Amino acid sequence: MDKRLIKYCNIIIEFGLPILAFLIALSFYLKTYDSCQIKITLLHIGATIIIAAWIVKVIERGRLLESREQRLYVIPVLFFLLSGIISFSISPFKFTSFEELTRRVLYIGIFLVALIEFNSSEKVNRMFRWILAATFIAVFYGLVQFIDLDPFIWRQAFGDRIFSTFGNPNFFAAFLVLVTPLILTFFDFSEPEKAKRTIVSLSLVVTIGILYCFMQFLGKEGLMRLGSLGAKAFFFFVENKTYSFFFLLLASLCLMVLVKMKSKKLLALFMFIVLVNILMTRTKAAYIGFAAGSCFFAVATTLFIVPATKKQKKIFLAVFLSVVLLGTSLAVVFLIRERIDSVRFRVFTWLSTLEMIRDYPEKGTTIKSTPGKELVHKFLGTGIGTFKIVYPAFRRPQIFHIEGKSNTETDHPENEFIEVWYDEGIVGLGIFLWLLWVFFYTGIKRLKQVTSYSGQAAPSPNKISRFNPHSKKGAKFKIGYQIEKLTRRQYLLLGLLSGLFGLLVHNLMCVNMRFVSSGFVFWLFLGLLGGQILGEKEDNPSLERNMRDEFLSNIRYRRIIQTIVIILAIFLVFFFRRFFIADVHHNIAIAYSKAGMWENALKEYQTVLRNNPYYAMTHYFMGNVYNDRWDMKRVYDPRWDSVDLRQKYFFPSIYRLLNRREEEDQKPRTDAERAVAKYADLKKLAPNYVQVHFQEGTVYTKLGEWDKAIENFEKYLALDPVYAPTYFKMGWCYVQKKDWAKAEEVYQKAVEWNPKFGQAYINLGNVYFMQGKFAEAENCYKKAAEINDSDISAHRSLAVFYWNLKRYDLALKEWEKILELNPEDKEAKSIIEQMKAKR
Question: 333 exposed, middle or buried (CB, 10 Å; 0-12, 13-18, 19+)?
Fold first, then answer.
């Protein structure tokens, strides 16, 4: 065994993982399309390096686990990985599933490293120092955003909700929900007097923080309703919120001095800042998750650590839980009244997801599974990570009204458990619940064991108590055949259990575990939790020795396998780097598209596809660029028509080897053909992506291919039946086909879904006129003019309508109105002169 190699691997693992946690929490890069794409890249590259170093170490040492007890936690997690792999194998959308499976593999690799390698106090303390340092910086930046001093371009991207370095208030709040219980573990609850002072101090700090944030929520309008007192509160606490914030910090410090809190005052002030950050994310699900984690911590601390009588504990818990439940309910109700749409959005999304679970659709459509596959989908799911591909076919119309637009994506169903159920079926959900039960059951059991003195009377505060975990003499308890000492590890066990519980409750109403900022920390903490439950174990080199002696004796085999692992890791580092480069160029391309610089945009989009050929949004935007540019000269342009295989496949050389083709067929094309081809590429990846059917229908409308246009518009209406422009364009297609009845039907739908759609009323009036329904036509023209009295086309339609019906006085009035709106209108001038001359 090469001890020097193991030493290098240990350095990478023991320092690399804490630094990776620190960087993932704090990093962002605003020149990518996704400002937090850097977090994904750090996970891909950093986790790959750390896991590779760990595998090399495992091969060198010749064993995976440090103790047999670790199997209890490794087995359910590996089954969860196997569930993801099986789900990937049956997925009809392999690349989308590959993205999610990649994260699953890396997360579980990080879990194994944390569980097996971070088995000493030194390593664990180092990890939490880095995490708490990241927390300090994140809440400081959140405070900067709160007082409106954010220097970056994304400032106020979510209005007055803060999001720190996480790019989203929900993700920032989820991180704080996870780490706040760890901060609480630094307070001493083991002695009666200290516990009382700590609880009183924290209660005061929390109350001040809540009242301060509540005044921010009320704002000027709400506080002014309270009269002169409200006006003063607005001026001091809202208008001058920066000064009032620091004043309240100082006030909190003075109150802690008054209650004779002897230590940890700065830590309590830090809790005040953390609480303000959580509250100012204005995230209802996070409030509930934070309350759940705090209650878990309070209950466990009271039952297992605080030395008090059962009656005292019952009274305290009854009061504490009642206050937290009432306060959280009031805060959530207050925010619901402000933003009820977020609740409605979740409810409708959950209902649609349950329909997807019931029907198990195939290939991103609403078609139910065939009888032969229905059982497979029921138990194994439809494919890991495929929710966002299939969901558009089930999305309820109410969602479009809630969001106020149609060109949006919903990637996740706002509930981690439902998404696992859909992706991986009953089996996957069962395994997920199993592994959670294993960790929480054994964690609570171990916490109860090592602190099993809760039923005894409280020791005298003037006496060194054997029940005091902070006593120099320590506290020893007999547990079966073991002697345990209550130390910092047990406090961390309590903090990890509380944070994970809060996050899981949070994810009953949120999606953050599907994103790196929360998903990485969840699996990291889960691994650390397993290590804290097991405790530090002695090295056991004889574990399963007989099965490995032969392998260990052959150094050549070990070196070959280790070399393969290192080469694979290097390959993956450069492979994952491509996704980050693609996102940078995608952002640049969008800027060129908005500026109408089509050629520059297309060049950037091609760079994107050379790095990530399966970037669905890039295919969609490229099609839109061709659609907007609309160069109908049929030419062969090597820039757009000679697409090399790097833009279609990750590994073009393998494609060439298998198909013996250097590149795709090349032929002259128009922009219409280029757009249709690009939309076809997109639909292979995501059949119902955003508005692809609408855009393709628009292309065929421009080409005058009415039947194809109608076919695509109907496909889009099956996904989004409330988008009025679809009915409008479809109506035009029926007008060209002189199918007046169908044109009337769809134009009526257009104005039904958008009563302010003036041009739709004009076109509907034209259709009525062609059918001889003159009264209906007049009403439509008048409605269009009523919607926008300065709309010249509405008045022109009325003028022509009255002229054709020989109602010349009314026609003249409309022509004069047109001339009033546009004095340079030559047609209006000419017709008015002719009509006046005839008089």
Answer: exposed
